[in-house]
Amino acid sequence: MQKYRVGIVGAGGMVGQEMIRMLEKSSIPVSELRLLATERSAGRRVTFRGEEWTIEPTNPERFSGLDLAFFSAGRGPSRELAPEAVKRGVLVIDNSSAWRMDPGVPLVVPEVNGEVLTGKEKLIANPNCSTIQMVLVLKPLHDAARIKRVVVTTFQAVSGSGYQAVMELEDQVRAYVEGREMEKKFYPHRIAFNVLPHIDKFDETGYTAEEWKMVRETQKIMGDENIKVTATTVRVPVFRGHSETINIETEKKLTPGEAREILARSPGVVVVDDPSQDLYPMPIIAAGREETFVGRIREDFTLPNGLNLWVVADNLLKGAAGNAVQIAEYLVERGLL
Amino acid sequence: MQKYRVGIVGAGGMVGQEMIRMLEKSSIPVSELRLLATERSAGRRVTFRGEEWTIEPTNPERFSGLDLAFFSAGRGPSRELAPEAVKRGVLVIDNSSAWRMDPGVPLVVPEVNGEVLTGKEKLIANPNCSTIQMVLVLKPLHDAARIKRVVVTTFQAVSGSGYQAVMELEDQVRAYVEGREMEKKFYPHRIAFNVLPHIDKFDETGYTAEEWKMVRETQKIMGDENIKVTATTVRVPVFRGHSETINIETEKKLTPGEAREILARSPGVVVVDDPSQDLYPMPIIAAGREETFVGRIREDFTLPNGLNLWVVADNLLKGAAGNAVQIAEYLVERGLL
Q: Do A129 and A315 meet the contact criterion of CB atoms below 8 Å apart?
C-alpha cells in the first residue's frame, strides 16, 4: 500500500489543528507528517497515530519531497507559498480564498462535484465554510428540481475567524459575568450579546467578500452560472457551528416531503426535522460532527415553487478541515494521487 | 387640560415595566395610574412622575373608572380580561397576539397606519415586535415602489420572551464562565452560544406562530393583502435588540441611494449605513433607543428590482412598550381619546 508524505501549512491554527485530527481519522496512509506554521507555534509537538511530530517554521524548502500539502494559513501566505509547493511537485489542497475563483483551479466539495477531479490537478481549492454546507443541501435539490434563485442569511460562529475571535467572545463573556467592561480587540464591535452584519471586507457594492463568496463559489461548485444567489452574512456569539436560512425558488415543484426524502438519501447530509418534538438543527448538535444538518423544511407559500430550509454545520469540521481531508481521501481512494 | 386615568395590566413584567417608563416620558397627562399584575408582583411600589403608586392584583373591578388601559399580560389574560375592561368603558391598547387579527380591531404602528384610528375604537392591538420594526422600514418603500415579496430572517433577543428567558441566558453564561453545566429550564434547548430556529408554537405547515405573525400582521398594517411575506424567525443569545435581514422585490426600481433617501426622511427610522467606517445597525446601538435602525441597504443583483436591508430595533421599546404608548399619544394629541 502506498503511503504519503503529507504537509500541513498553518498547523498551529484552529483549522490546522482540526486538519491534523481529521487526517488522523481518515483512510489516508501517512508515512511522514510535516507540520509547518509561524515561528510562534514552532517547536510544539503533536501526536499523530501514535507517533510524535514537531511543528516547524514554514519554509518553502520543506515542501520538497511531499506528496500532498494542506494549506490553511490565510489568503496571503497561500498566494505566496502554494506556487512554491506546486513547483516542488506537491499537490496542494488550499483552504484559503486565494485560488478558489481561478478558472484553472477546481473548487471541490466531494459529495457535490468530486467528479471534476482527474488526478492531474496541482492545486485544489477548498470552498468557504458557509458555502460548503449550503451546496451540500442545494445540489441534490438542484438535480431534482433545478434551483433558479437562492436568498441566504447566515448566523456564523466566531471560530470561523480563528483563535483570537474565540478568545474575544470568551473574554467578553467573562468580563460581563465579572461585572467588568467588555473590551473589543479583534472585531470592530463587541460580539458578546450582539450580532455583526459584517464578515470579511466590504466592497463598493455594499456586499462583503464573504457574501460574494457564497454567490460565486456556489455557481462554480454547482457547475451552473445561472443559479442566482443573494446573501447576507452575519456573525453571532456562538463558538462553533454556522447556521443558515435558505430560501429557494425551483423550476419544478418540490414538496417539503419530497425535499426531505431527497436530502435524507444525500451523502453528508442529515435531516433533523420534527418541530413537534422540538427537533431541528442547531449549532449545539452540529458541533463536533462532520455532517451537515438540515431541517425546518417547509413550503414557501409566496412562490409557486419555493422552499425554506435551515442548515447547520460545524464550520471547522465539514466547513474547513473535514472537507479538505475528504478531497484528499477522494483522490487516494480512486488512485488519483 | 384633560388628564387621564391609566391602567397597566401586566405591570410586573418586562414590557409592563418599560410601559411605565415610556408613559412617564410621554406627553400624556395622567391623573391616576393603576398598576395591575399577578399576586407575585402585587405590593411593589413604582415612582411615576414623582408620585408613588403600588402594584395591585389584577381584578376586573379595578378597570372601572379608567380612561385607558395598556395590556401586556399575554394572550390568555388579554382574551379574558380585555372585554371586561371594554365593558367598563375603558379603551384597551393590547400588546398580546389575542386580538391582532380580529377584523374589528385596528392593528397600529402610528408612523405607518395611524390614520386608521378614528377615536371610536374600544380595543386597539399593538403588533408583534419583529413586525413593527419591519413595517416601519417597508411602508415608505412600499409607498414609493410597491413591494411585491419579502423574505425575512430574524435574529431575536431573549428579552422578547420575558424575564425568565433573560435570566436563563444570564445563568447559562455564568455557568459557562464558572465551568458548570449550562442548564435549561425555559427554552427547549440551550440558548447561550447557540441559536434556536424556534419562536412560539409550530403548526402543521412547519411554520411557527411568530413567522405567521410577520406575514399576516404585515399585510394588515400595510393595508395590502397582496404583499407576500415569507419568514424564518430565530432566537439568538442577545439580551436586547431584534435584528432582521429583509430581502424585498418591488414593482418599481429603487436604487439603494433612493431607498436610503426615502428612509432617512421616514419618521421613527434612522439610517446607519456606512460600511466603510464599520457603521451598520446592531443590537448594541439600538438597545435603549425608540427608533428603528436600517443599514446595509444594497441592490439584490438576482432580481430586476430587488433590495437587501438589515433592520435592528429595541424589541422592548419600539417593539412593544414604546409603540403601545405612541398609539395612546397619537389619540391624545388628536383629541381622539
A: yes
